[in-house]
Design a protein that fits this description.
Elements: E1 3-7, H1 15-23, E2 28-31, E3 40-44, E4 47-51, E5 64-67, E6 72-73, H2 75-87, E7 96-99, E8 103-104, H3 107-120, H4 132-141, H5 154-176, H6 183-197, E9 201-202, H7 204-213, E10 218-225, H8 247-252, E11 261-267, E12 270-272, H9 285-294, E13 306-308, E14 310-311, H10 312-322, E15 326-330, E16 340-349, E17 352-354, H11 361-364, E18 368-375, H12 392-405, E19 409-413, E20 421-423
Parallel strand pairs: 1-10, 1-11, 2-5, 2-10, 5-7, 6-8, 7-9, 11-15, 14-16, 15-19
Antiparallel strand pairs: 3-4, 12-13, 16-17, 16-18, 19-20
The structure holds inosinic acid.
Amino acid sequence: MNCCVIGLQWGDEGKGKVVDILAEHSDIVVRYNGGANAGHTVVVGDSRFALHILPSGSVRPNTICVIANGVFIDPDVLIEGIETLAKKEITLDDRLLISENAHVVLDYHKKEDQLREESLGKNKLGTTIRGIGPCCADKVGRSYAVRMADLRDLEKLKTKLQTIADYKNKIFAALYNAEPISAGRLFKKCKTYADKLMPFTTDTTKFLHKSIADGKSILFEGAQGSLLDLDHGTFPFVTSSNSSSLGMPAGCGVPAKMVDKFLGVAKAYTTRVGAGPFPTEQDNEIGQYIRDKGGEYGTTTGRPRRCGWFDAVAVSYAITVGAIDCVALMHLDTLTGLKEIKLCKAYKIDGQEITFFPANAAKLSQACPIYETVPCWDEDITQVSDFHDLPASAQDFVCRVEEMTGKPVTIIGVGPERNQTIFR
Ligand code: IMP
C-alpha cells in the first residue's frame, strides 16, 4: 500500500506525528517538497525531534528515507539533522537517499529572502527566511541553479559559483546596498557538503520505481499545507512549492495513480503563520487559549501562530483539489475546556453565500465566515484510545467535521505522543 500524507490547512497540521505512526507499516518514507521551512515534530518517549528536511520516518531505525527531487535542500540544516539523530544513536548511514536532481539552498538564497522581506516592509509575505522562494526562482530561471549533482564535480562548481556570486552581488548592491557574497567562502562550504552528502546522493526516481516494482510500501510525506500551494493556495501568501497533493508526482517522479490513498491532515481548529487572509482567525482570548494549550509556536521560526476556528470551506477545498480519501483530525484535545466550538460552514462575500473556497488572497480577505456552533467538553481526553470513549460532544464534533467535509475521519489526535491517537 502506498499512501501520501497531505496538510489540508496552512501547514503545521500534525503531519510529522501521522507520518511517524504510519511509517511503522511502510518500507520507505519520501519527502518531496518544501525544505527547511518545514518543521515536522515527532515525539518518541522523552525525546522530541524537530525534523526540517529529513523525512519523519527517519526516527524509525529500519525505515528507508528518501529526499526526492522536489525538496529544496539546505545542506547545513540537513547535515545538522543527520548529526543530531546520530547523537541519539539513530544512524541514517545505509538508509538515506538524496536526489541528485534536488536543488541546493545556499547562503545567498537565505540572504536574498531576508533582504527582500525587509525591503517590502509592511507588505512582506512573512516567509520563514529559509531561502525557499529565491532557490525556487533560481530553479525556474535555470541559469544560476545548483543541484545536488553539481556537488559531484567541484572544479566545475567552482566556476559556476563565481558566475553566480558575480550576478547576485550586482543585485545585492543595486537593490539592497548589501554586502557582497564571497564565491570562495561558498565553494569551501560546498566542499564540506559534498564530503558529507555525496555518499547518500543518487537517482531517487529510479530507486522509487524499482521499489514499487518490488512491492515495497511507500509513504509520501507532504510538507506545508494545501492552502500554501504555489498554484492552488492563497497566492501570494503561499510557499514556493506545490504543497497540495498535486505536487507529489512532480516532486518525486512517481505518478499519483501509483498511490493507493491520499490521507489529509487537519487540526480541529486552524492556524496560520506569516501574512495572508484567514477568515476564521480569532485574534482574541479564544485564539490565545488555543495557542497556549496547543503549543502553537513555529517549529522552525518560533513565531506565535495565528489561531482560529475549524474552516470546513477551506478544508473541503483542499480535499477536492487533492482528491483526498480520508482525514486525520489532530489536536482534538486542545479544544477541551472551551465554552463552545465553532465550525465555519460557508462564507459571505459581497452579500453572497459561498461554499467553494476562493484561493485568491484579495477575494478571500473579503470573506465573512458563517458559523455553526456546537457544544464543547470538559473531560480530559488525552488518554482516550477508543472513539466511543470520547465525550458525546467530542464525538459529535468529529461527526460534524465528517459531514461538512464529506470524508471519513479515520485518525484522531488527542496528544503529541504516538499512543495518544485514536484509529477508526
Ligand atoms: P516560505 O516558505 O519560507 O517562503 O514562506 C512562505 C509562507 O509559507 C509564510 O507564510 C510561511 O510562514 C509559510 N510556511 C512555510 N513553511 C511552512 C510550514 O512548514 N508550516 C507553516 N507555514 C509555513
